């Protein structure tokens, strides 16, 4: 734990905060892209330590949160079919679809299994040649490479009873969508360090130039966040808008060439719907033609399932940084981690869950918030 402790050093944090206070002369709104960064910010109270002029807006970088409801419904439909073994990371089991979740499918007799790697699902397929084994492949550029590798291995070893339900999304088009929103208030971005460790930084200079926003590649520990804020604010104060790598211990400009090559082989870029936001052009991946036989959506003919988001959930506004979680009427009352109305409350990386876990007792009183049972979020292995 020594390594983590070093990036939580209170003396260094105080010095970074002093630097930020000294640099700020006017209000700035920054967006941290990743849900993991949001949790660090809320858990450690970083937003409360920053000067009032610096506002942190929580971006759309939680993979569970942005997975559309209709993809959840497709997963529920496939998992309910006889003969199917449906494999997923744990955090997807409690995400509500229309009327039920994967836990309830399992309770009703469905064979739904939590795995810690997509390769575990491939092993299960090998061990059960008479069953169809499906892995729920969601997430950003971080989880896409191992999922691509799994499909590559399935094809290489001719494992035909394996398929992938794909809902992968890409960060740069989401940043572009945020900047194109007429309500956008974001003036600078803390980019997600783990995404850049795979993809590198080559997609960001064009975005920084087009929208004249600084983009600082940022890690996940408290000092990482403060350093990202410090470098973003300094650029804004100087009128600069360049791409800076503030997470060099994990990120190289070229990313991970082997992982990118695997992505290029197995996936192709496609338009993708984001929960609460809608379709963003070129913002996702699907299996390329060579691997299309491993696409669960085609294999199980669930492509025509279409679902409407519940009207009372405002996660779309939360995911676009237009609303703070506690400003939603349902926060902590009808919507809690035990009774989530939207994925931003059920996911361990979701902004609503972060506010519920770490802030609900500090926020303006809501009668039933303190009375609800504590959260029991599943640990996330999705990044
Ligand atoms: S508090 Fe619940 S209902 Fe409100 S936006 Fe968050 S997930 Fe949706």
TrEMBL record:
Cross-referenced InterPro entries: Hyd_form_HypD, HypD_1, HypD_2_sf
BP-aspect Gene Ontology terms:
protein maturation
Residues in coiled coil: none
Recorded hits in Pfam families, A to Z, give: HypD (PF01924)
User: Is Iron one of the keywords UniProt gives this record?
Assistant: yes
UniProt keywords (A-Z) are: Iron, Metal-binding
Q: Which GO terms describe its molecular function?
A: 4 iron, 4 sulfur cluster binding; carbon monoxide binding; iron ion binding
Tell me if RNA-binding is a UniProt keyword of this record: no
Entry protein name: Hydrogenase formation protein HypD
This chain's source organism reads: Streptomyces cadmiisoli
